[in-house]
Design brief:
The chain has one domain: Cyclic phosphodiesterase (Cyclic Phosphodiesterase, Chain: A, Alpha-Beta Complex), CATH 3.90.1140.10. The chain is built from four helices and ten strands. The chain is of the alpha+beta class and 172 residues long. A hairpin with a 3-residue loop joins β5 and β6. The strands form three sheets. A four-stranded antiparallel sheet has the order 3-1-9-10, with helices on one face. The chain has a four-stranded antiparallel sheet with strand order 2-7-6-5.
């Protein structure tokens, strides 16, 4: 299984993010994320058959719930169009906690800087009159509550990417 940990969103947040995607799609091209797949990745795990070990490690995490804010949009190299997350120490601490719990059971997650974001599109190519501002106006304005850590499975079904929550741990 191809696995990762994430913070999943409620329907209201997904709807707002999807509206921002649809606005961006009018003046660009790319592979836009399906509404049901929108999430904030914490730690990418990759291919493994150790789902049970990962669930046990996540179950040992005691971390308080917290709020974070979606803020701005941008692009990474390789054509990733994203919605950003405002600076948030609690989110960084949660990432480090999950990362360390996975390390304790023998996983070596990628050691790259944690840049929290929500992928809105891949292979993104804006047209000349594209406006990040118009997209950003549709992002959720109110803070998002991180209530749980989700273990997600990534798979292709009928040629479409699908993310499925297979385990979760409620935050305190």
């Amino acid at each position: 299984m191809r696995l990762f940990t994430a913070i999943c969103f409620d329907d209201e947040t997904k709807n707002a993010l999807f509206s921002a995607e649809k606005e961006a799609e009018k003046l660009s091209s790319g592979n836009f994320t399906k509404k049901e797949n929108l999430h904030l990745t914490l730690v990418f795990i990759g291919e493994t058959d150790r789902k049970d070990d990962i669930e046990k490690a996540i179950s040992k995490i005691d971390f308080p719930s917290f709020d974070f804010k979606i803020s701005g949009t941008g692009t990474f190299e390789k054509g990733i169009f994203w919605a950003g997350i405002s600076e948030n120490e609690k989110l960084k601490e949660l990432y480090k906690t999950v990362f360390e719990k996975l390390r304790e059971i023998g996983f070596e997650p990628e050691e790259r800087e944690f840049v929290p974001h929500i992928t809105l599109a891949r292979k993104f190519r804006p047209k000349e009159d594209f406006s990040f501002f118009e997209t950003e106006k549709l992002l959720p304005e109110k803070p998002i509550r991180a209530k749980r850590i989700s273990l997600m499975k990534s798979e292709r079904i009928g040629g479409e990417l699908k993310y499925t929550e297979i385990y979760y741990k409620e935050l305190l």
